Amino acid sequence: METLYTADWVLPISGAPIEHGAVLVRGDRIAWVGAAAQSAMHAHADTPVQALGACALMPGLVNAHSHLELTGLRGFLEGLDFREWLRTLTIVRRDLLSDADLLDASRAGIAEALCHGITTLADCTDSAMPLTAMREMGVRGIGYVEVFGPDPSLRDESLARLQQRVSTLRRLDTSLVRTGVSPHAPYTVSAPLFRATAEYARAESLPMAVHVAESAAETAFVRDGAGPFAERLRERGIVVAAQARSPIALLEATGVLAAQPLLIHVIRADDEDVARVAHHGATIVHCPISNAKLGHGVAPLDRMLAHGIATGLGSDSVASNDRMHLLDEARMATLLHAVRSGSPDSLTAHEALVLATHGGARALGLGDEVGTLEAGKAADLVAFPLHASAVQPVHDPAVALVHALAGGAVASLVMVAGQPLVQGGVLRHATGEWDGRQHVTATRLREWRRHSTL
Question: Which candidate in 49, 67, 218, 420 could, as Cys together with 317 as Cys, close a disulfide (CB 3.0–4.6 Å)?
Answer without folding.
Answer: 67
